[in-house]
User: Which sequence fits this backbone?
């Protein structure tokens, strides 16, 4: 494993192993997922992986959270309309990407009663919703939305149509999908429906 | 198979086989699904099944469509608000029921890259959305909604938050979820966002 030497320690190992985890999930799914394959793909020894992650599900949980966090940044433009559009547009890009599909496949395997890490991905999703809440609370502070707006309800209303199209009806989603979802969420928020 | 004799022909056979199909999917999933098991559960001979359905995927497609059609009726109360609430409330009941979970598990197995009948369930969903469209077109005719309201967009906006909670965040859904979804869809429609 001489090629693994430069990756022996530090944040690069972590990044390489997490990226390899998403790639493995993307290509082979959860059922065929092994730490051996991830280690080989990342060019590290298996013990290096186990030193950082207790088991494959802990590794997957970390990789999914990292993928979501890196690819759906939380915007802060100063305008809630722009923030919601940016958030929805990042989600559209991510959900259509190989890593987004990999994350969703793991999560949906769970719902579908197939082998899957228990609730791992749902935690990742809930965490991302939680981190998006300041988009709403900042808008309330700026007086752009009613003071009693429930941020969780608003963010769920924003993202739901994108997940619905990507997963249930199987449509392709794009910036127009994102902007329409943002317009619906804004209109409902201004009408006080999330109070 | 003497117990199968009364089910030898007629609409009762069809109903029994379709119900057995949903029950089998619900209990054992698509991967373990066989026409043999369905026939046994329904108390009919396998050849009786094959006389009506060409293969297991045709049988599943029919069973899923039937489950959705029976459990999510299309309302016509004379008021679009009441119709949308009724539609959302039926969806909430169905999505939380064993047969709803079975239908979704089959569909999501497909998305998750697990063995699944190709696109069968998506057809069933699209068909149900299509059949719900008169709720919107009747409302437009009654002058309750803007003349250029796109019925497909409105219905998708109505149902998306219910699917999102049931499948992605894993929350339980109830009448309040349904009514909130109906209020958001109505407000967006009246604001002309589906034009």
Assistant:
């Amino acid at each position: 494993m001489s090629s693994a030497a430069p990756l022996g320690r530090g944040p690069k190992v972590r990044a390489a192993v997490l990226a390899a985890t998403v790639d493995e999930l993307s290509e082979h799914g959860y059922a065929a997922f092994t730490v051996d394959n991830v280690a080989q793909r990342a060019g590290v020894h298996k013990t290096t992986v186990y030193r950082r992650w207790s088991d494959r599900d802990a590794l997957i949980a970390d990789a999914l959270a990292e993928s979501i966090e890196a690819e759906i940044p939380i915007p802060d433009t100063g305008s809630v309309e722009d923030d919601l559009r940016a958030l929805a547009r990042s989600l559209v890009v991510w959900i259509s990407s190989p890593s987004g599909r990999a994350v969703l496949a793991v999560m949906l395997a769970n719902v579908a009663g197939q082998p899957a890490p228990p609730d791992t991905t749902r935690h990742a999703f809930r965490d991302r919703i939680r981190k998006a809440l300041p988009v709403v609370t900042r808008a309330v502070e700026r007086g752009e939305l009613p003071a009693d707006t429930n941020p969780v309800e608003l963010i769920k209303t924003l993202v739901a149509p994108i997940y619905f199209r990507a997963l249930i009806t199987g449509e392709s989603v794009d910036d127009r999908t994102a902007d329409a979802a943002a317009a619906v969420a804004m209109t409902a928020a201004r009408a006080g429906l999330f109070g």
Summary: Chain A has two domains: 11-65, 74-190. The radius of gyration of chain A is 19 Å. The CA atoms of residues 64 and 103 of chain A lie 6 Å apart. The domain at 11-65 of chain A is CATH 1.10.10.60 (Arc Repressor Mutant, subunit A).
